[in-house]
Design brief:
By secondary structure, this protein is of the alpha/beta class. The chain has a single domain, classed as Ribonuclease Z/Hydroxyacylglutathione hydrolase-like (Metallo-beta-lactamase, Chain A), CATH 3.60.15. It is built from ten helices and twelve strands. The strands form two sheets. Strands 1-2-3-4-5-6 form a six-stranded mixed beta sheet. The longest helix has 29 residues.
Length: about 280
């Protein structure tokens, strides 16, 4: 999908295998096509085929991918990074707080186990350029992406702002109301959303949602903050009734209260919910 003359979105479907059955998901990756190509996130293992096919459809060559910017280290964002870097020789940029899990995906699996991890992640890749927030990434002559540190979903999550096109790439910073809540730090997630909602954008491009233009994006930011606050209030309500002993039981009750699908009762969601109690 073409967003502007230079920015494109590619939606990539994938399957998460779980003991209870398969979960069908999809993730968006983005291209900035200037003199060279900047790829924002890589999708899961195998996603390079979708990316290369799209490039060929618009008359470009995969070998022209010069830079891969990772918004964070989770499997659906770094899964194809190793193969893309191998095939194109592109440099890789990511926030310093995400470096360990990108450069050692076995460590990530150990510390944050995800069902079917090795079907989703093709392997580790070296981060050539460490980001901290505040940098500018040159994507074409006179055009840069501004790096915004937006922790919450993960410690080193970043968003990218393109002032020339008024396009904001948000990674997973914006939660989709009613979808599975995945975050590491509740207060940081809210603060990051409040930071992003003040940007005078024309397009908001999220990894998990359809591209949103100005009015829709503003509504989504507000709804995402409200969703986070509702999750937090529900976790505290359930923990007061049940105590904080069994985090999976708390997860089960919170999922029921929020009317989320049953597959949301899993350790990854439970980890997110318990972060609300660490305030």
């Amino acid at each position: 999908m073409q967003i502007t003359s230079s920015i494109h979105a590619i939606n990539i479907p994938f399957v998460v295998p779980t003991p209870a059955g398969q979960i069908n998901r999809s993730v968006n990756v983005f291209l900035y096509c200037g003199a060279k190509i900047t790829l924002i996130d890589s999708g899961v293992a195998g996603s390079e085929q979708y990316i290369y096919s799209y490039l060929e459809q618009i008359g470009l060559q995969p070998i022209n991918i010069e830079h891969l910017v990772l918004t964070h280290s989770h499997p659906d964002h770094v899964g194809a990074a190793k193969e893309i870097q191998r095939a194109t020789g592109c440099r890789v940029s990511a926030h310093i707080a995400e470096r360990n899990w990108i450069e050692d995906t076995n460590l990530q699996e150990k510390e944050r186990p995800v069902p079917g991890f090795h079907t989703l992640v093709g392997g580790s890749v070296t981060v050539d350029n460490l980001l901290y927030g505040g940098e500018s990434i040159l994507v074409d002559q006179g055009i840069s992406l501004e790096v915004i540190h937006t922790p919450g979903h993960s410690a080193g999550s970043i968003s990218l702002w393109c002032p020339s096109d008024k396009v904001l790439f948000t990674g997973d910073a914006v939660l989709v109301p009613g979808d599975m809540p995945i975050f590491d730090n509740y207060p940081s997630a809210v603060d990051s959303l409040k930071k992003l909602e003040n940007i005078a954008l024309e397009w908001s491009l999220s990894a998990w949602d359809e591209p949103k233009q100005t009015a829709e994006a503003k509504i989504l930011f507000t709804e995402s903050i409200d969703w986070l606050k509702k999750i937090n209030a529900t976790v505290h309500k359930v923990s007061k009734m049940r105590g904080v002993g069994d985090y999976m039981e708390i997860c089960r009750d919170v999922v029921a209260e929020l009317r989320l699908p049953q597959f949301a009762v899993n350790p990854l969601v439970a980890r997110s919910l318990m972060s609300c109690l660490a305030e």
